[in-house]
Amino acid sequence: MIDHTLLAPGADRGAIKRLCSEAAARSIGHVCVNPRYVAEAGGLLRGSGVGVCSVVGFPLGATLTEVKALEARRVVELGADEVDMVLNIGALRNGEDFLVREDIAAVVSAAGVTTKVILETGLLSDDEKRRGCAAAADAGAHFVKTSTGFAGGGATLEDVRLLKAAVGDRLGVKASGGIRTWDAAREFIEAGATRLGTSSGPAILDGWRH
Prior knowledge:
The chain is 46% helix and 18% strand. The protein is α/β, with parallel strands linked by helices and 210 residues long.
């Protein structure tokens, strides 16, 4: 359930190596890295059973749709087996739900792998969150995700419950941003999260095992 994540702009090769080593040592499901490091992470994790997730249109979501689609296609070619995209937040707030759906659908089609849609819940009203979930489901995405962690807020239990209620069993729900302990992780899972994005994957697993 854990995407062991390192998306900081200053992440260097040594940090990526540590991330992958930690994930492999604990059989974590995926690492999540910026596009620049997809191929490198894939090489480091070859044979470990740990997958590689990358991000598209990150962290603002305002990239042109054709650029998002190209980015999605390229990261998959480089070895990513999952993609986390940021939806067009401004379009959603403008009420341009058709454009939001088309943006997501283009990435889903280009990627051809499990695609998670980051709503950036800290910037949205509850109605906008529900509409974002509907757009993600209609566009063929596989998960909705709370946050990038770059917009001043992370996952909240209230938002995870709202997203779960909105998508039901049609999509997974990924909670991301500020989840650092097993106790916190357990609360998010109980609230409806089916995936956790965190830079503290080993600490969470160590807490679970003890």
